[in-house]
Design goal:
The complex is a heterodimer of chains A (299) and B (277). Chain A is 82% helix and 0% strand. Chain A contains 14 helices and no strands. Chain B has 277 residues and is an alpha/beta fold. Chain B has a single domain, classed as 3-Layer(aba) Sandwich (Rossmann fold), CATH 3.40.50.300. Chain B is 28% helix and 23% strand. In chain B, the strands form 3 sheets. A 6-stranded mixed sheet of chain B has the order 5-6-7-3-8-9, with helices on both faces. The chains are: A mainly alpha (299), B alpha/beta (277). Chains A and B meet through α8, α9 and α13 of A and β5 and α2 of B. The structure holds adenosine-5'-diphosphate and magnesium ion. Magnesium ion binds next to α1 of chain B. The site of adenosine-5'-diphosphate has 13 residues of chain B, from α1.
């Protein structure tokens, strides 16, 4: 295991530590991949939180797991499994959302899909009689052994997806917060919803490759939710969401480099800690603002 | 000032013996109505009478099964760029993290593709228009706060600003007074009445209670029992007309302050089929 070779502990001199961090090509690739993924997750995640599709996002991340396991079993690159399963899962979810049934029926069928995906994942893993340590990295992420070809694929998918989001950004926000009026204005609300599901599927597939399937939330949802807590301005919110995702990814990768714990653990803990801090801070500010706002009328 | 839409002398809305069928059921039929420019018309009627259905038919979202409908001189759906629409019961919960000013901005250019470049002349003009219309509805003080944290009346003012921002020729407001407290009902009604007069916008306002808008109305359309009557409030809101429309005895009382009280109005009447809603 390369982990033993890497684990050298911190020297507590930031410059030497930073130098050591980028002295191995695999670490450079990990940083490149992490940067690409965090950027994409930050953009997409802002819309996921705005559209309240975190449950759908979680389902897609659960679907990513059997995708990766199936790819391993078939001897294909992991990315093929991630992208293939997540894209198909997104289209399936689009079909469920499109059928005219109640919301409860919808979440029941999404939940069933989650259970099926998990079961399939474990089936594939047990069919593959390989080393079980592979399961850990599928579920909780790894930054080892990322090749430059993988980085290139991540980059191509990210550029395509983020460009699409940039083009549809305004109508997508309109359709997300105000569907009835948007529809009356000629915005293709349903088509945009389907398009965004596909974007979400691709983002989950990318994020899974860094954080593992089970910890996708840490990059895709938590930084974005923190950004939404901090500001309700769309442009600033997206920028903050990207910034936070980048921050926790870089820090998480560095911490994972100097220790033995999986990168997903650090990214998750860091973004969760940030979210809790911001929530607590906002709670205090909100109470003060509320008193300030109503005080003159009471007086 | 240029307004999109047809010649200024054309009617804003005409329905001629129109009917709408949904799920195999006729919601209403033989409905005729003319709304001239600058008219303020209320659509009244019990729950389930098809008031929202009428608004959606005018937007071209629902098809018309019989008769003819024309909106700003065009087919329904073709003139939506010149319509300000406020859907029914649209309130934002506390978690809605979008500012009122963004919502109004979306009303102006939310249907455009691509990202606006800040600092351009066009962008400054559109920001100025948004600020102007927010000022018009008196929402400047709270427009930059998240909409979910505002009161129902404050939200409604911003939504009216959103409907107005493109200088529409026709406003379709579906129960804008619903779920507002009485003082907010009175002030929002006054706002719509004043906009109608000052900007010469035709207003079709769906309401549950006629009293807050009585002072501003030109005419009413009363929908009930699958049909409708149109006329001045004095002609329509009477015991005889409503009893005929409902096919059941209805009594209209006038309180000493001029308020109208409709007694014996069955809620959700004539609902065939198996819906429990
Ligand atoms: N898509 C639909 N399919 C079938 N029936 C519908 C549909 N939409 C509304 N309805 C029915 O049409 C009737 C009128 O609805 P609506 O226009 O919302 O009433 P109102 O706005 O006057 O309360 C109701 O009985 C409702 O159940
Ligand atoms: Mg209605």
């Amino acid at each position: 295991m390369p982990e033993a070779a890497i684990f050298q502990g911190l020297s507590w001199n930031p410059l030497t530590d930073l130098d050591r961090l980028v002295s191995y090509p695999f670490m450079v690739h990990a940083l490149e991949a992490g940067t690409i993924v965090a950027f994409m997750a930050g953009v997409t995640g802002w819309f996921v939180v705005l559209r309240r599709q975190t449950f759908v996002g979680h389902t897609l991340s659960v679907i990513a797991f059997p995708g990766a396991a199936a790819a391993t079993l078939a001897g294909l690159p992991l990315a093929v499994g991630y992208f293939g399963f997540c894209a198909c899962g997104a289209l399936a979810l689009g079909g469920i959302g499109g059928s005219r049934r109640g919301l409860s029926a919808e979440s029941a069928s999404i939940g069933s899909l989650q259970a099926l995906a998990l079961a399939l994942g474990f089936l594939f893993v047990s069919l593959y009689h390989g080393i079980l340590s592979g399961l850990d990295s599928l579920l909780f992420g790894t930054f080892l052994g990322i090749t430059s070809r993988q980085v290139l694929l991540l980059l191509v998918v990210a550029v395509a997806t983020v460009s699409f989001v940039a083009v549809v950004a305004r109508p997508l926000v309109f359709a997300s917060v105000d569907a009835d009026v948007a529809r009356a204005r000629g915005v293709p609300v349903r088509l945009l919803g389907l398009g965004f599901l596909l974007v979400l599927g691709l983002s989950v597939a990318e994020t899974s490759q860094i954080t593992g399937a089970l910890l996708v939330f840490a990059l895709l949802v938590t930084p974005a939710a923190t950004a939404h807590e901090l500001t309700s301005r769309p442009g600033l919110g997206i920028a903050l969401s990207v910034g936070l995702a980048l921050g926790v990814t870089w820090l998480g990768l560095a911490l994972a480099y100097f220790s033995t714990y999986p990168v997903g653990f650090y990214v998750t803990s860091l973004s969760f800690a940030l979210y809790v801090l911001v929530r607590l801070g906002r709670g205090a500010v909100g109470r003060r603002r509320a008193t300030a706002r109503f005080a003159p009328e009471v007086a | 000032m240029s307004r999109p839409g047809p010649a200024a002398d054309g009617a804003a809305v005409t329905l001629d013996r129109a009917a709408v069928r949904l799920g195999g059921r006729t919601i209403w039929s033989h409905v005729s109505l003319t709304v001239a420019r600058g008219d303020f018309v209320a659509v009244l009627g019990p729950n389930g009478a098809g008031k929202s259905t009428l608004v959606k038919a005018l937007l071209g979202v629902l098809p018309v099964a019989a008769g003819t409908v024309s909106v700003l001189g065009r087919e329904p759906g073709d003139a939506n760029a010149a319509i300000g629409y406020l859907p029914q019961r649209r309130s934002f919960d506390a978690a809605a993290r979008i500012r009122g000013v963004d919502l109004v901005q979306l009303g102006l250019d939310g249907d455009r593709w691509g990202i606006p470049i800040p600092g351009t002349r066009k962008r400054r003009q559109s920001s100025a228009r948004v600020a102007e219309v927010i000022e018009l509805v008196g929402a400047t003080r709270y427009a930059r706060e998240p909409i979910g944290e505002l009161s129902g009346g404050e939200q409604q003012r911003l939504l009216i600003a959103q409907a107005l921002v493109r200088r529409p020729s026709l406003l379709l407001l579906d129960e804008p007074l619903d779920s507002l407290d009485l003082p907010s009902q009175v002030s929002v009604a006054a706002l719509v009445g004043e906009i109608c007069r000052r900007e010469q916008v035709a207003v079709l306002l769906v309401a549950h209670d006629i009293n807050p808008i009585l002072g501003y109305l030109d005419r009413v359309l009363y929908l009930a029992g699958g049909g409708a009557v149109e006329g001045t409030p004095e002609d329509v809101i009477t015991s005889e007309t409503l009893s005929r429309l409902y096919g059941a005895p209805i009594e209209v009382l006038r309180a000493s302050d001029g308020r109208l009280v409709v007694v014996g109005q069955p809620e959700a009447p004539f609902v065939h089929g198996d819906r429990h809603a």
